[in-house]
DNA sequence: CAACGGCTTCAACATTTCTTCAATATCATA
DNA sequence: TATGATATTGAAGAAATGTTGAAGCCGTTG
């Protein structure tokens, strides 16, 4: 999962970032409104953890930006203000959850997962796509009831593909999603071929269809059959 | 077990805290409503020992907070007020038990254990998972009827794993749960490896299966077979 | 104060995953 | 169809992470 943390308080920001990174997510962060919007205009995230009190304006602007551009990122507000008004306002503009500081990182994680699955799936902690079933908690995947073991990159990739099923995903968008800013964009992304190959093989070996359609010159599409 | 003691009378608070700490629990405390709610919004506890008469309001607010946020902590009210109304009210809002001051620590302990097991398991004093049987009262564990001796960390870890069986638990989430806020999150958590190793060995040596599955790059999962 | 148990640190080693690379195949288009 | 660009694949080295035993630390106990 790719997460953006918008939080000006350095310690908290780093804690959150470290935590979610170690959970196996790609985590980026920034500390003001302008950078947040700049990043959002370039990149796509699965989830945004948004502080309301920022040095150059309040976080509601981010929500408005997302709404205006019909984006589907999950937004969880993390705010020091515990006012009901803020909460209502935030949820009204499109936030998915509201958490008052201070909070337990484990709780934040639980909410991220909860909100993500509420948005992506059907209320359980399962993400189901035809014969592919992903247990978000157990981090396991089965194809036709055959369990398959995925590495981090493969798992993240599969999640990303299913979240964007039917859409063409450019190779560099995929790279960006899986590696964050760490990646040298002048790279030729050769390694993606390998990860695609491995994921494909694992799904097919377990009796699944070949969902990964390559789009010549662009990237890949997860066939939404 | 991780316990929060909310009690404004200093002597009693320290007695309880010391007592439960020495019993091998992680025990935190605070002396007013505001701090209690603040702590609860950050951390998760297994059990809350809650005084009703607090300097900045009455403890029922804590219960309301927990109910509102659909939390599952066990709450035992410890109050000087011996009115039936308070008791009924408390239990109605979601408290699990009610104890009138003064009381013996041993009795408090008994109630904590009773309530914890009532909630967690099957009405007995035992938490049973396949061939692993945990006696919450005696703080003993048997595997295939072979008693194994666990240290505090190992015991807490086992409890946490069983409570979250089937879910992947990140290394840092585990650290957070076992060491509370004392831990430096920049630590590499090397010691966890050792505790895992020891717990694993003790279970296997006693003839148990290897339930502790490591999830590369993330953490561990207690296999829910 | 010596012995002990439990917790943590460390370093060597084992395992898993990621990336690179080169050979081969496929595709778009001139 | 010939050509250059892009994709697929397997193998292998590099990097990251996990496992293990031993040793040190530290508070407790006798």
What layout of secondary structure does this protein have?
The structure is a homodimer of 225-residue chains.
Chain A: E1 2-6, H1 10-22, E2 26-30, H2 33-42, E3 47-51, E4 53-54, E5 57-58, H3 60-68, E6 74-79, H4 84-93, E7 97-100, H5 105-120, E8 126-129, E9 132-135, E10 140-143, E11 146-148, H6 152-163, E12 168-170, H7 171-179, H8 190-205, E13 212-215, E14 219-222
Chain A binds a DNA duplex (30 and 30 nucleotides) through helix 8.
Describe the structure.
2 copies of one chain form a homodimer. Chain A is of the alpha/beta class. Chain A has 2 domains: 2-119, Rossmann fold (3-Layer(aba) Sandwich), CATH 3.40.50; 122-222, Arc Repressor Mutant, subunit A. Helix content of chain A is 42%, strand content 24%. Chain A is built from 8 helices and 14 strands. The first copy, chain A, has helices at residues 10-22, 33-42, 60-68, 84-93, 105-120, 152-163, 171-179, 190-205; strands at 2-6, 26-30, 47-51, 53-54, 57-58, 74-79, 97-100, 126-129, 132-135, 140-143, 146-148, 168-170, 212-215, 219-222. Chain A has a 5-stranded parallel β-sheet with strand order 2-1-3-6-7, sandwiched between helices. In chain A, helix 2 runs parallel beside helix 3 and helix 6 packs across helix 8. The longest helix of chain A is centred in the middle third of the chain and has 16 residues, at 105-120. The model of chain A is unreliable at 120-124 (pLDDT under 50). At the A-B interface, helix 1 and helix 5 of A face helix 2 and helix 7 of B.
């Amino acid at each position: 999962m790719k997460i953006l943390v918008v939080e000006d308080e350095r310690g908290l920001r780093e804690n959150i970032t470290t935590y979610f990174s170690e959970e196996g997510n790609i985590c980026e962060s920034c500390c003001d409104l302008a950078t947040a919007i700049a990043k959002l205009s370039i990149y796509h995230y699965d989830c945004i953890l948004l502080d309301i009190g920022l040095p150059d304006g309040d976080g509601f602007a981010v929500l408005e930006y997302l709404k205006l551009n019909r984006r589907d990122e999950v937004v969880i507000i993390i705010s020091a203000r515990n006012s009901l008004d803020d909460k209502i306002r935030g949820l009204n503009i499109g936030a998915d959850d509201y958490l008052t500081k201070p909070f337990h990182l484990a709780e934040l994680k639980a909410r991220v997962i909860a909100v993500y699955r509420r948005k992506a799936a059907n209320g359980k902690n399962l993400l189901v796509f035809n014969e592919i079933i992903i247990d978000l908690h157990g981090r396991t995947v089965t194809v036709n009831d055959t369990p398959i073991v995925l590495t981090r990159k493969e798992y993240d990739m599969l999640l990303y593909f299913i979240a964007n099923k039917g859409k063409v995903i450019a190779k560099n968008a995929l790279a960006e999603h899986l590696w964050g800013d760490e990646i040298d964009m002048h790279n030729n992304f050769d390694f993606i071929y390998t990860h695609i190959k491995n994921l494909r093989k694992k799904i097919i070996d377990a009796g699944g269809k070949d969902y990964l359609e390559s789009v010549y010159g662009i990237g890949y599409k997860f066939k939404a059959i």
